[in-house]
């Protein structure tokens, strides 16, 4: 079935501008979302999703109250929720393989939902801006087209993407909303910022940096974050970047150099340093097993000991 807007199938569109012209209520919803106050999410209840990751859970989860993701410039944040079961998934999509990623997102929610239960799948999209290379615009269209191809009915509720997520500051375009959180108990979605991006932030960033594909990082039935096993080979040449100035790193390692958050360069250097310290990924995954993390009573993520 097609993607549905106000219970009607979405016609083929050639631009996000056309989408917003045909459905002005989506513009209004996006403006409302943009104007909401930024929530600084408490790490003790948060499951943070990095680029090229997704996570899904249900309201019954005792370890996670909010799934969130940030630092999206041209990337898009996809929230899909089943209104009957309350099952919800958040994905951080960068356009690397959208057509194979969207079915994973849909399956993550439907597999946690009782198919006979009342309710429907509702989609909320965030991210992108009016970047010069139109990377955001292409990703917006690809995500919409990929959801159109799914056999399940999916209702597009919020669409704060590309031109509806754009602001011009000192002559430069940048996103209004860089991060969102979803309350897994209520389904409320809100603009968010995050001080904590763990567990295993550097390892997960290294996985993406070395070309890792979209990964499901959470086992909701056990309340465990699972990372890897990842696979990369030694590449000492990347040490070159550590001696470069900030502008060079932004120019070559970002899709949107003028719109990155202030910590982008340090984040890239930390990731590269991690890869230099762990030239082979094998040592990080003894026996080829993933790293597992569980929530402690204090609210921290702690490495689980595997027998």
From TrEMBL:
InterPro entries: NTAN1. Residues 287-307 are annotated as: Disordered. GO terms for cellular component: nucleus. GO terms for molecular function: protein-N-terminal asparagine amidohydrolase activity. It comes from the Eukaryota. GO terms for biological process: ubiquitin-dependent protein catabolic process. Residues 294-307 have a biased composition (Basic and acidic residues). PANTHER family: N-TERMINAL ASPARAGINE AMIDOHYDROLASE, PROTEIN N-TERMINAL ASPARAGINE AMIDOHYDROLASE. This is Protein N-terminal asparagine amidohydrolase. It comes from Cottoperca gobio. The lineage of its organism: Eukaryota, Metazoa, Chordata, Craniata, Vertebrata. The gene is ntan1.
């Amino acid at each position: 079935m097609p993607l549905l807007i106000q219970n009607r199938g979405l016609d083929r569109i050639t631009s996000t501008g056309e989408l917003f012209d045909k459905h002005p209520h989506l513009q209004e919803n996006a403006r409302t979302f943009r104007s909401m106050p930024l929530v600084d999410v408490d790490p003790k209840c948060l499951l943070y999703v990095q680029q090229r990751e997704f996570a899904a859970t249900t309201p019954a989860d005792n370890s996670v109250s909010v799934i969130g993701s940030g630092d999206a410039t041209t990337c898009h944040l996809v929230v899909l929720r089943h209104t009957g079961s309350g099952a919800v998934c958040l994905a951080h999509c960068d356009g690397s393989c959208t057509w194979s990623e969207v079915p994973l997102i849909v399956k993550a929610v439907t597999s946690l939902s009782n198919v006979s239960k009342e309710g429907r799948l509702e989609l909320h999209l965030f991210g992108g801006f009016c970047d010069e290379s139109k990377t955001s615009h292409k990703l917006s269209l690809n995500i919409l087209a990929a959801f159109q191809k799914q056999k399940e009915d999916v209702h597009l509720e919020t669409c704060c993407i590309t031109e509806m997520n754009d602001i011009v500051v000192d002559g430069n375009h940048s996103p209004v909303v860089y991060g969102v959180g979803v309350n897994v108990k209520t389904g409320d979605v809100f603009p968010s910022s995050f001080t904590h991006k763990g567990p295993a932030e550097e390892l997960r960033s290294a996985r993406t940096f070395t070309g890792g594909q979209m990964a499901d990082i959470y086992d909701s039935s056990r309340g465990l974050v699972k990372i890897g096993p990842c696979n990369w080979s030694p590449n000492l040449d990347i040490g070159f970047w550590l001696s470069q100035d900030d502008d060079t790193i932004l120019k070559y390692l970002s899709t949107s150099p003028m719109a990155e958050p202030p910590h982008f360069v340090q984040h890239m250097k930390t990731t590269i340093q991690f890869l230099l310290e762990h030239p082979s990924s094998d040592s990080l995954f003894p026996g080829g097993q993933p790293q597992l993390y569980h929530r402690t009573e204090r609210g921290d993520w702690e490495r689980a000991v595997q027998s």
